[in-house]
From TrEMBL:
BP GO terms, sorted: regulation of G protein-coupled receptor signaling pathway; visual perception
Keywords in alphabetical order: Cell projection, Cilium, Cytoplasm, Nucleus, Phosphoprotein, Sensory transduction, Vision
Entry's localization field: Cell projection, Cilium, Photoreceptor outer segment; Cytoplasm, Cytosol; Nucleus; Photoreceptor inner segment
Keyword Nucleus: yes
Similarity remark: Belongs to the phosducin family.
GO CC, one annotated term: nucleus
Sequence segments annotated as region (Disordered): 17-45
Gene3D superfamilies membership: Glutaredoxin (3.40.30.10), Phosducin, domain 2 (1.10.168.10)
Biased composition, class Basic and acidic residues, residue ranges: 17-29
InterPro entries tied to this protein: Phosducin (IPR001200), Phosducin-like_reg (IPR051499), Phosducin_N_dom_sf (IPR023196), Phosducin_thioredoxin-like_dom (IPR024253), Thioredoxin-like_sf (IPR036249)
PANTHER family in UniProt: PHOSDUCIN, PHOSDUCIN-LIKE PROTEIN
Protein's name in the database: Phosducin
Length: 228
C-alpha cells in the first residue's frame, strides 16, 4: 500500500546518517519521503515520469546500502511499538499512590474513568500484614499499570472509627464509582509471610485484575521473531 511505502521511505530518510551521504543521495531520499510534493496536481505526466524514475533510483539506493536490512528491522520494530501503543487504551499508572485524606480518597474513586479498576489499601503503621501488603501492591502496580493502586492510612480517611485495628489491612476495589469488593483483614487469607504473587492469585480468583500486559517491545529480538 502506498501509505506503508511512503511511511517506510520517511523512516529510512530519518534513519540515514545524512552527514555521510553524498548530496545526490540526500536529495533522492528527500524526494522518496514525499514523491508528489514537488509537482502540481495538473502536472500528471511529469509526476508519473518522476515516480517511475524514483522507483529505479530507490532500488539502486537500497541495493547500495549494506545496512538496509537492519534499517528494515528497526522500522518493523517501530511499527509494532506504534500498534501496541494504539491498542493500550486508557491511562497508565504503574505505582502505588499514597492518598493523604478523605477528599483525595473520594476523588480517586469518583473522578476516574469508568473502565478503570481502583484498588485501595486501608492500612496503619504497626499493624501486622500492612507493610507486606504495601510491598506486594507496589510490585503489582508495576505489573498492571492500567489498574490504579492506592493506599491510605485509616486515620486519614475521615472515618477512622470504621477501620479498627481488627479489620486492617483492608482492600477496597472500585470500578465506575461502585464498590466491587471489600476484603477486611485480608492478610488472613495468606500465610504469615506472603508476597506479590500471593496477592495476585487472590485478586485473580475474584476476577479483579486484567490480563497481563504484553512485555515491553523494546526487548524483542527482531532477528529471531518475524512480523506477519
Amino acid at each position: 500500500p502506498k501509505g506503508v511505502i511512503n511511511d517506510w521511505r520517511k523512516f529510512k530518510l530519518e534513519s540515514e546518517d545524512k552527514d555521510s551521504l553524498p548530496l545526490s543521495k540526500k536529495e533522492i531520499l528527500r524526494q522518496m519521503s514525499s514523491p508528489h510534493r514537488s509537482f502540481s496536481k495538473d502536472d500528471k505526466d511529469t509526476r508519473e515520469r518522476f515516480c517511475r524514475k524514483m522507483s529505479m533510483q530507490e532500488y539502486e539506493l537500497i541495493n547500495d546500502e549494506k545496512e538496509d536490512e537492519s534499517c528494515l528491522q528497526k522500522y518493523r520494530k517501530r511499527c509494532m511499538q506504534d500498534m501496541h501503543q494504539r491498542l493500550s487504551f486508557g491511562p497508565k499508572y504503574g505505582y502505588l499512590c499514597e492518598l493523604q485524606n478523605g477528599e483525595q480518597f473520594l476523588e480517586a474513586i469518583e473522578k476516574e474513568r469508568k473502565n478503570t479498576t481502583i484498588i485501595v489499601h486501608i492500612y496503619e503503621d504497626g499493624i501486622k500484614g500492612c507493610d507486606a501488603l504495601n510491598s506486594s501492591l507496589t510490585c503489582l502496580a508495576a505489573e498492571y499499570s492500567t489498574v490504579k493502586f492506592c493506599k491510605i492510612k485509616a486515620s486519614n480517611t475521615g472515618a477512622g472509627d470504621r477501620f479498627s485495628d481488627q479489620v486492617l489491612p483492608t482492600l477496597l476495589v472500585y470500578k465506575g464509582g461502585e464498590l466491587l469488593s471489600n476484603f477486611i483483614s485480608v492478610s488472613e487469607q495468606f500465610n504469615e509471610e506472603f508476597f506479590a504473587v500471593d496477592v495476585e492469585s487472590f485478586l485473580n480468583e475474584y476476577g479483579l485484575l486484567p490480563e497481563r500486559e504484553l512485555p515491553a517491545l523494546g526487548n524483542v529480538n527482531t532477528d529471531e521473531q518475524d512480523v506477519e
